[in-house]
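Please produce the structure of this protein holding zinc ion.
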Amino acid sequence: MAVRDIRILGDSALRVRCSEVESIDDEVRQLVDDLLDTMYAADGVGLAAPQVGIPLRVFVFDVREPEVESGVLINPRFVEAGGTIRDTEGCLSIPGLNETVERYAEVVVEGLDRDGREIRIEATDLLSRCLQHENDHLDGILFIDRLSPLKRKLLLNKWAKMDESEKRSAGAF
Ligand code: ZN
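Below is the modeled complex.
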């Protein structure tokens, strides 16, 4: 178990299209455990493997609501998506920046757990948003890519001028 460094915007690791995990071995299980440690240490609610520089289709999530499941998804596939919601979103890789992003309201995702078993997650609200944000990371997509070019430019200018002490993202993905 270890906390790994979270890659920050500008790092090419965040722009890679990640590969499927071919077999869940000790290395992958270690990655899962480290992602969980790193997510909790950063006070985040989700974290994807490319955010720690590993180009594999793996992410962890915990929206910190007792009735909502938490865990890991390996090789996730979205099998259903419907409705739209608009809410504020932040990213552990762009700390300090938050903006409203439109997402599907409800999603159903299938994939593998840490032991390689097939799992299916039906998600709404924050978990739905989190799963979509993490899945984007696996394709090298960041939430700022889902904003208008003007909005993105304004936000990135703001981020560039931010003091390091303001670059915090509790509750981000
Ligand atoms: Zn993120």
